[in-house]
Amino acid sequence: MAATSRNHTIQFEAAKRAEDHAHQSTKKPGGNGQPELVNTSKQSVEFEFGGSLGAVGLIVGFPSLMYYMWIGATYYDGQMPLPVDGQTWLEFGHRLLSLVYIGAFPTTKAWAIYWSFFIVEALFYCFMPGVSGYGKSLQHEGGRQLNYYCSAYSSFYATILLAAALHITGIFPLYTLIDEFGPIMSVAIISGFLNSFIAYFSAFWRGRTHRLTGYSIYDFFMGAELNPRIGILDFKMFYEVRIPWFILFLLSCGAATRQYERYGYVSWEVMFLVMAHFLYANACAKGEQLIITSWDMYFEKLGFMLTFWNLAGVPFSYCHCTLYLANRDPVEYRWNPYSLAALFIAYLFVYWVWDTCNSQKNGFRQMERGQLVHRNAFPQLPWRVVRNPKAIKTETSDRILADGWFGLARKPHYTCDAFFAICWGLITGFNTYFSNKRRWGHVACQTNFYPELFLYKSAVSKRKAN
Questions:
Q1: Which value, to the nearest 10 degrees, does the dihedral of the CA atoms of residues 148, 150, 151, 154 take?
Q2: So what EC number does this one have (predicted)?
Q3: pTM of the model
Q4: Domain locations along the chain
């Protein structure tokens, strides 16, 4: 199941290259009692993402981009924030920082919301019903296979029931996620950094470092430990399957409840996003046991890249279609009903392709090891498993699936992911504010009176709600 936030191709030869560097390495104690290989010939390291400089750029750029996008969605009617006439770049930068401070300060309430969710999901991981399976053999640990406990499916529906109960009782209305989006996003960003630092330094403290390059910044970005765990809770699995997609779905539910509370109904456009994000989160949860043999689980280390992007980047940047609809009257983006029906049908068809091709790919790996687990999870789709599939054997004794969807196209799940992203944007409609007098008047007002305008908009929103 494609539960990772990154849709880029990494050649498996990289693993072999890492082993080829062993003769240029020194040994230090590893967490499993075996010597750990640490590269001492820095010239032989092949870097991704531009090496240390690229890592620094991404570490700074990820949160900066998230704030920039949030400012555009919140204060610029969904457009790119740019200086207005007569405004210097220094003044513009100061204004952006002021908007972040005013609208996205990490309040105590935001900390309580985010970390309550985090802790509840961690408890669900450990105590909700699930299935177990073994990952791929880890050569650096003498061929040991880690046992993974997969309870995301029951956790997802428990999360839905808990969220519904909190909303209905008024203890925690779901639209609070929309109202407090800025502060919660800031907490997620800070948490992404904190968890990354903890994971990095604890790997050294516990002697669990693996495949280090000797470049500290790059190693922090890519990770120092392969499978950090506390008991049965595997943090990489926890971050990739639950946190981002559950939050994304709950944000869409928050938009729906906000719209119902404000207008007395939920538009079909918002319902489309609720459906889309439900299907994605549900698919990741129901296929959790299939990803335990994937590249991310057995090769990628848990560094800043995976930690930050799953705790903050995915849920709080993939949701801008949701924010756009939540902040506007439905008449501004209403689709023709026939076109909307066609989009629903097309989306469901592509979802079937995406779900089944991921199931075929990962199920193929499970069948190779005799570990395929059949689960009666919703939805049960036809052609999710290819029996006796055609496969190509490689020089490394691995086999490449060449049947099912993968006999018809290369990486069809990436095409489906692109279609999903287009649809999530397409559902917001085609309105533009570049030539809209209302937008420019709004921007000019923000330039001179943005703190007061923020308070005014908040007051108007509350008045509409009442």
A1: -170
A2: 1.3.1.71
A3: 0.83
A4: 61-97+433-466, 104-431
